[in-house]
Amino acid sequence: MAAERMQDRERERERSVPRIRLDLPRERRTRLLPEYDPEAFGRLSERIARFLGTGRFLVWMTLTVVVWIGWNVFAPASLKFDEYPFIFLTLALSLQASYAAPLILLAQNRQDDRDRVNLEQDRKQNERSIADTEYLTREIAALRMGLGEVATRDWIRSELQDLIKELEERRDLFPSGEDRGSDVPDR
């Protein structure tokens, strides 16, 4: 009876503890932190960095600071929200700068990655162009060597002109006469 109880306990323990299988992937764990798309975040940071680098941003920032300071200097005391040392303005500008710097760096890193990929593609394209150029150079050299053995139109013309000159010289040396080449007087 005790042996049966031991076997029952072991069976229950085997049922309660899942068996680890190495041939199956693990189930995904639930994350406590929210998930985000790094590509979407990168695109957003690039848009913000692009805006921070424009004259429009500088104009809006300057207008905001001028209005802020003007309001807190010239407004009635009951409406002022940031007195002379402008601590709240300093805090707001520091907060803006603390977020702007990493966003700009992230955008620069993404641009560096894109530049690196473009540079690699350009390098491969240049290698292909160089290989194509070398191939065409070898082909042109082979054609030139082959053409060196082929009679060209200019070469044939020069040969014909040489033959014509030679025939004219022979005609001058041996003028055509009635007595020449005739064997009548010899008979």
* Order of secondary-structure elements: HHHHH
- What proportion of the residues is helical, as a percent range? over 70%
Structure classification? mainly alpha
Strand portion, in percent?
Answer: under 5%
Q: How many separate helices?
A: 5
Question: Could you give a short account of the major beta sheet?
Answer: none
Uncertain runs: none
Distance between the termini: 156 Å
> What's the average pLDDT?
86
Task: Label the overall shape.
Answer: flat
Number of strands: 0
Q: How would you sum up this structure, described in words?
A:
This protein has helices spanning 2-16, 38-52, 55-74, 87-148, 153-173. By secondary structure, the protein is mainly α. It is flat, with a radius of gyration of 48 Å. The protein starts with a helix and ends in a 14-residue tail after the last helix. The relative contact order is 0.04.
Key traits:
single chain; 187 residues; mainly alpha; 5 helices; flat
What order do the helices and strands come in, and which of them pair?
Layout: H1 2-16, H2 38-52, H3 55-74, H4 87-148, H5 153-173
Quick overview of this protein structure:
The protein is mainly α. It has helices at 2-16, 38-52, 55-74, 87-148, 153-173.
